[in-house]
Design a protein that fits this description.
The structure holds two protein chains of two kinds.
Chain A (H helix, E strand, L loop, with lengths): L4 H25 L4 H6 L1 H11 L14 E4 L5 H11 L39 H14 L6 E6 L6 H12 L5 E7 L2 E2 L2 E2 H4 L5 H7 L3 E6 L3 H13 L5 E6 L22 H13 L3
Parallel strand pairs in A: 1-2, 2-3, 3-7, 6-7
Antiparallel strand pairs in A: 4-5
Helix pairs in contact in A: 1-3, 1-4, 1-10, 3-4, 3-9, 5-6
Chain B lengths: L18 H15 L3 E5 L9 H6 L4 E3 L4 H13 L3 E7 H7 L1 H9 L6 E5 L17 H6 L5 E3 L4 H13 L4 E4 L22 E4 L4 E5 L3 H16 L3 E5 L2 E3 L3 H11 L1 E9 L4 H12 L4 E7 L9 H7 L4 H12 L9 H4 L1
Parallel strand pairs in B: 1-2, 1-3, 3-4, 4-6, 5-6, 8-9, 8-11, 11-12
Antiparallel strand pairs in B: 5-10, 7-9
Classes of the chains: A alpha/beta, B alpha/beta.
Chain lengths: ~280, ~350
């Protein structure tokens, strides 16, 4: 069922809150992958607050939907969402990046409740997601697997090995998202190693492709629901996003791939995020 | 978890079956009892001999094409979903092409994935160095959570595969190509992960071997006994990790001379693992390692290569004779400490 206007309003509000949480964690951590966490925040919000069938009070519930953060450096964003969902106490995130903390920049699934796969090295999440989806089907379970990739990550050959396999095995319970914020560490994706035509590449690999505004909840919802209804082929949703989305001084600026902020900058960032509240 | 005790494997001709063929048959038996077991490969279903499994359980085989990174990633995902994946490919690809997936997806997450690495060492002799793997013992033993087994022959492969199912977490089983001689006469000799098998007793020197070198060490021991009257203790240290420290230190104390033999680079393999144990114990002994002397392997029939690198019977005999004459500083108090 398409998202209602009320649903969308609620999700937008939640996304603003999570973005503010990400800012807080960035301050506490001394430095974090803020740009890419902000760009993926709306997809993450739509999943965790509307579409994922999960039980935070029972993190290992066998029939839960799986979420694999293949762009593992988005761990900042994911940990904000998991804390807010109640997987663990938000206060624990004060230790983010600190000595012996369970929360490193790239989340460890054996240490952090709610993390379905330990990721960080790029190009690993999609193959694992294909394995999860195949495992569910083999055991006649109906849960779905969602995998969020970075756009720069699509340089990795293993992404395309998995793309080939997902089509071959017709794993229609797998939905991939590409956070197409156009940037990687060293600059713009099209300058470093061009990805375009990205949608055509996925189509050529046999995937159903949606290309959307990754900050528009109506479009995100429509794409996810389209993927859920799709039979026989996996779906990829290319989410056109803005790196640093929501924070005016971070938006579309590669230097905020990873950064640290003080309380003054944090206040400015939150004002910018909440400025879009009207 | 399935209980597998004693001999459940009912195809017994280890002399005519390769290690990998035996793996395929044992896996069939195990899979009958354990619905979690699936087999994965990357276009090497034939080479890694899982054909018999494929015939019996076609829906439980996943051949992902020539894509080893994907192979191990998919296996990790399957293990996460509750399956028990057995992944077979050549050791060069399992240990090097897909090392990061094995390390990060499988070992770091401590997943129940069993890796059957075929064509280890120089067993695919004529294929040349790209298809040899003389680094995998060093690589795999450095991965935390990994259990590393190098079976001596087909019988020991059967035992290792069964034991791997019982052991939680990742296991790497290194096989040859399948034309190696068989040492054991059956599988009923008390195989246990992490426990060395004493092949021959002796107090003059100990030869510590794994894989195909076990057969050759046993041959050498027989010859040395017959020709020189030397008592050689041969240990089959099939589990490189966790290694049997007790058997190694007992051998150091009782024989004081240790020769390690393996189909691997002398750096980082069985010999290095044994040396770690001895060095940490503070015991001195005469010590030597045989294997590839930090070089890339030559092309040739495996038996010619074993001879060239002194891991065959004659080679081991020569090394034993040499080591018996090496002087070293013995500690007078050894006996008291044990």
């Amino acid at each position: 069922m398409p998202l209602s206007a009320a649903d969308i309003k609620k999700l937008e509000s939640k996304a603003r809150q999570l973005r503010c949480d990400m800012i807080d964690i960035t301050v506490w951590s001394g430095g974090a992958h803020i740009g890419g966490s902000l760009s993926m925040a709306d997809v993450l919000t739509a999943l965790y607050y509307h579409y994922l069938n999960v039980r935070p009070e029972e993190p290992d519930w066998p029939d839960r939907d799986r979420f694999v953060l293949s762009k593992g450096h988005g761990g900042l964003g994911l940990s904000a969402a998991l804390a807010d969902k109640g997987y663990f106490d938000r206060e624990l995130l004060h230790d983010f990046n600190h000595f012996k903390s369970p929360f490193g920049m790239h989340l460890d699934g054996n240490k952090v409740l709610g993390v379905d796969a330990s990721t960080g090295s790029l190009g690993h999440g999609l193959p694992m997601s294909v394995g999860m989806a195949l495992g569910a089907r083999f055991q006649q379970q109906t849960w779905r697997t969602y995998c969020l990739l970075g756009d720069g990550e699509c340089n990795e050959g293993s992404v395309w090995e998995a793309a080939m396999a997902a089509h071959h095995y017709k794993v229609d319970t797998l939905t991939a998202f590409v956070d197409r914020n156009q940037m990687m560490i060293d600059g713009r994706t099209e300058d470093i190693m061009s990805l375009e035509p990205l949608a055509e590449k996925w189509k050529a690999f046999g995937w159903e492709v949606h290309e959307i505004d990754g900050h528009d909840f109506a479009q995100i919802g429509e794409a996810i629901e389209g993927a859920q209804a799709m039979k026989g082929v996996p779906t990829v949703v290319i989410c056109n996003t803005i790196k640093g989305k929501g924070v005016d001084f971070m938006e579309d600026d590669v230097k905020w791939h990873y950064g640290s902020i003080d309380s003054e900058l944090a206040a400015r960032a939150k004002t910018s995020i909440m400025g879009g509240a009207s | 978890m399935t209980e597998v005790t004693g001999t459940t494997w009912n195809v017994y001709d280890a002399n005519t079956l390769t290690q990998a063929e035996i793996y395929g048959r044992v896996l069939c038996d195990l899979a009958e009892a354990d619905p979690r077991i699936v087999a994965l490969t990357a276009d090497l279903a034939n080479s890694t001999k899982i054909g018999v499994f494929q015939e019996k359980f076609p829906e439980r085989v996943f051949n992902v094409g020539i894509a080893e990174q994907d192979l191990f990633g998919i296996a990790a995902g399957m293990a996460k979903s509750g399956l028990l994946p057995f992944v077979s490919t050549m050791s060069a690809f399992a240990s090097m092409r897909a090392l990061e997936q094995v390390r990060t997806d499988i070992c770091y997450q401590n997943l129940d994935v069993k890796i059957i690495a075929t064509h280890g060492g120089v067993s695919f002799g004529q294929a040349g160095t790209t298809h040899h793997c003389t680094e995998d013992i060093a690589i795999q033993r450095s991965l935390a959570n990994m259990c590393l087994i190098v079976p001596a022959d087909g019988w020991e492969t059967a035992n290792a595969v069964r034991a791997a199912v019982q052991r939680p977490g990742p296991v790497y089983i290194r096989l040859g190509r399948g034309f190696e001689p068989t040492h054991y006469e059956n599988d009923d000799y008390g195989f246990e992960i992490g426990k060395a098998v004493t092949i021959t007793e002796g107090t003059d020197i100990t030869v510590i071997a794994c894989g195909v070198a076990v057969y050759h060490a046993a041959e050498a021991a027989k010859l040395l006994k017959d020709q020189d009257g030397i008592g050689v203790r041969v240990l089959d240290v099939h589990t490189i990790k966790p290694i049997d420290e007790e058997a190694i230190l007992k051998a150091v104390t009782e024989t004081r001379r240790i020769l390690c033999v393996e189909e691997h680079n002398v750096i980082g393999g069985l010999g290095s693992a044994v040396a770690d144990v001895i060095a940490a114990s503070g015991k001195g002994c005469a010590f030597a390692k045989s294997g590839l002397p930090d070089c890339y392997s030559e092309v040739g029939y495996p038996e010619d290569l074993y001879s060239h690198y002194c891991i065959d019977g004659d080679g081991i005999v020569g090394l034993v004779r040499e080591l018996l004459h090496r002087e070293f500083e013995a500690d007078e108090d050894w006996e008291d400490e044990f």
